[in-house]
Amino acid sequence: MTRERNADSDITLDHLYAIKKIDEVHAKGGKVCTWGRSLPHSGYIQSKLGKPKVKEFYSYCGGLPAQAHHKYRACHTAEHAQNPLGFKFSWSPRGCLLSQHNSAHFLSANKEITISRNDLMNVAKPYFVLDGYEFVAYPNRDSVPFREYYGIPEAETVIRGSLRYAGNPAFVKALIDLGWLDPEPKEWLKTDLTWAQVFQKAIGANDPCERYVYPPSAFEINHINTLTQIPEPSTLTSRVNEICHFPTKAENTRILSGLHWIGLFSSNPATIRGNNLLDTLCAQLEKYLSYQPCERDLVILQHKFEVEWQDGKKETSTSTLELYGDADGYSAMAKSVGVTCGIAAQLVLEGHEAFKGPGVMAPYRREICDPIRELLEKEGITLVEKIIED
Question: Parallel, antiparallel, or unpaired: how do β-strands 2-4 and 157-165 relate?
Answer without folding.
Answer: unpaired
